[in-house]
Amino acid sequence: MDPNARRRTVLVPAPPGRVRGAVLGVLAAVLAALAAPVAAQEPEPETVRVVHLVIDGLHPAQVGPLTPVLAELKASGVWYEQARAVMASETLPNHVSMATGAYPQVTGIPGNEGRAAVGDTAPTEPDLGQPELLEADSLTRTIERVCPDLRTVTVFSKEYVHRIFAADGADADFPQELFNVPESGHALDTTTVGFILAELARAAPDYLFANLGDVDRSGHIDATGAAGLPVEQLAALQQTDKLVGSIVAELRARGLWESTVLIVNSDHSMDWSVPIDPSSAVDVAGALEADPATSGRFFVSENGGAGLVYLLDPAAPDADEVLLAARDRLVDLPGVDEALYRDPNPLDPGGDLDAVHPDWHLRTPRAGELFVTVLPGHRVGSVSSNPYPGNHGHALTRHATMLVAGGWDGLAGPTVVEADPALVDAETFDDTAGLPGQAESVDLAPTIGWLLGVPDPRAPIRGTGRPQWQGRVLTEAFERQPAPRCVAAAPGRPGPPAAPGRPAPAAAPAPIHPRLPATGGGLALAGIALVAVTFLPRAPRSGRQ
């Protein structure tokens, strides 16, 4: 054989029976593999995002035919019949309680205005919307510190609400100063919702906290409210309802609705008086100045339906006697509902806040040495110092809106959470008894934290030894708890500092979004603000505005 001949490999055909056997073997193996049980794959963890909208000043009875979007959310979600604000039922203390899960005795914010420090003798009352006065951490700040991978957005229309949370580290923060309506101190809902829609389009947040102020601001100057039909406020509410609809439409269009829990609530409701009727204005400061026993001893901070009465010298040796004289004078003043000591007075046992209203949790020095509330149809101040027909701060205006809705199928709705009739006066909103099972402003931070998996900060805060989340989780609104979105910061990976210091957000105008309703509501509110500036006497900025 030639050694240089090309080596060839010859394939010898197998007998026909052997081919058939091999093919059948392969087919059998394939069929066996197909029939074998397949190991189940782990499902993707079910998480939700939370969109929290506060419609400032909305009474729950106003949700109905004039508000089709809110009415539909109410019908499909979980609705609380007797939800309530914290006292004083003002904008700032309730937004702070929603954000921190704590009562005013822990947050240090009992009203929109008041004395910043005990014994402060400054000639004017400060706006309490200062970040250095807030003594508890907001949920946003907690998220930024322990769950840095969550995206947070804050959209506050009122200047003092925006200011007190300005250092809380949100990933996107509405530049409120650019859109502030003069004298009103707020940005129109059309503008704030435009910012919300832009943020939903940019990168869907895990947690969005927003305040819509048009309903409140229009109610403050609505002279028709005393007649039982607040025309201006209801017109503003219809516009806001459409804007809420645009947010829902955006969530649906972007495929986010099925993973969204939407919370809509109000910080308080509204009470109206006749602005030109002197008897509807309860001049607490004037009454104390007119009494020789109390003249020159007090400063009064007017907060709509509440008055925070401060001793100019709380360390005076006759302080208890002067406070007793002041309370005797005020409880007999027409229009006053209650006048209660912040701390027990040994000369007048049982007349303090904790003895009469322990559920208010209002025992903070900034609440004043006396806390005064007025009856419905009245307001604290004189006709000149408080000319506004719409007010809140009264115990009556604790009656607030609370609705939990959304597209996530873990919601328990449709459900109406009713209060025990034995605990509720059928004629009026009785705030004197606690209502187990109802929702309160302080319940929102614990509930949202539970939904997102944020670690519960009930440990002592800022070295004070006081717990922070004092509210409860609204578990009745849900069938199950979703998987946590929170990714806790690893050791050695610190979040932002607890102290204020976040740089100011970049100033950028809120874009006009195609899903905004094409109505004139925003312009109408601008007109309302102009009327207020033109015809109403100028008054110190406070919760009554």
List keywords for this structure.
Gyrase A, domain 2; disordered C terminus; 2 domains; four-stranded antiparallel beta sheet; single chain; alpha/beta; 16 strands; 14 helices; eight-stranded mixed beta sheet; Alkaline Phosphatase, subunit A
Give a brief outline of the structure.
This protein is of the alpha/beta class. It has helices at residues 16-35, 68-76, 91-100, 104-107, 139-146, 159-164, 189-202, 214-220, 231-253, 284-290, 319-331, 353-356, 444-452, 521-535, and strands at 49-55, 78-80, 152-156, 172-173, 207-212, 260-265, 271-272, 281-282, 298-303, 306-311, 336-341, 370-374, 379-380, 390-391, 402-406, 415-417. The longest helix is centred in the middle third of the chain and has 23 residues, at 231-253.
Structural class: alpha/beta
How much of the residues is beta strand, in percent?
A: 5-15%
- Low confidence ranges: 1-43, 490-512, 520-545
Strand order of the largest sheet: 4-3-5-1-6-15-2-16
Question: Helicity range of the residues?
Answer: 25-40%
What count of helical segments does DSSP give? 14
The name of the CATH architecture of the largest domain is 3-Layer(aba) Sandwich
Question: How many separate domains make up the residues?
Answer: 2
Task: Give me the count of strands.
Answer: 16
- Determine the CATH superfamily of the largest domain: Alkaline Phosphatase, subunit A
